[in-house]
Amino acid sequence: MDEFNFNQSSRNSIRVSNAIIQDIAFDGNISYITITYNDCPGCWNQNQEQIVRLVVTDNTVIRNEAGRNIPVGSLQSGMIINAVFSSAMTRSIPPQAQAFQIQVRNRPNMNPQTTGRILEVNTRNQTLLTMSNNNPSSMIRFNIAPNTVILDPLGRPIPFARLMPGLRVRIQHASFMTASIPPQTTAFRIQIIR
Hints:
The protein has no helices and eleven strands. The protein is mostly beta strands and 194 residues long. Residues 1-9 have low confidence and may be disordered.
């Protein structure tokens, strides 16, 4: 899907192509997606890389590569997107603007995934210990970063404190691991699965 079907006046909106998602943050029903771009037809500074923080609400239309609607929790850092957002922006750094539509163009190279049960949740140190198939040698300690995306079984964002021992999770994580026992790595995305 190359074109957006959006009725917003071109004077009230900005259209960018091939933007890269740098960061995703969740605050209740509102999500903030920081993007960088320099493909902005009609923008006065289109040859310079720009950054904007998109404010994503329930009214924002988000579509995958096939044009199907997807939840905001499906978006990931590194994705390449096209976006339509309000030309009215805050004067903050980076500026913020209301997102009208986001179209995923390309996904980043997928990071390794591990599926297992949570053995331990350490909210003080922001770590999570998992084990797969009741095999003690499969234990991994995951470090939870401020931008780690944590989703419930329906794909809705939840806080780290809602994770508990016994839950089955699929964790997308860094490809490197420490040589410690158990090995440690950084979790990028945690999805509770049934």
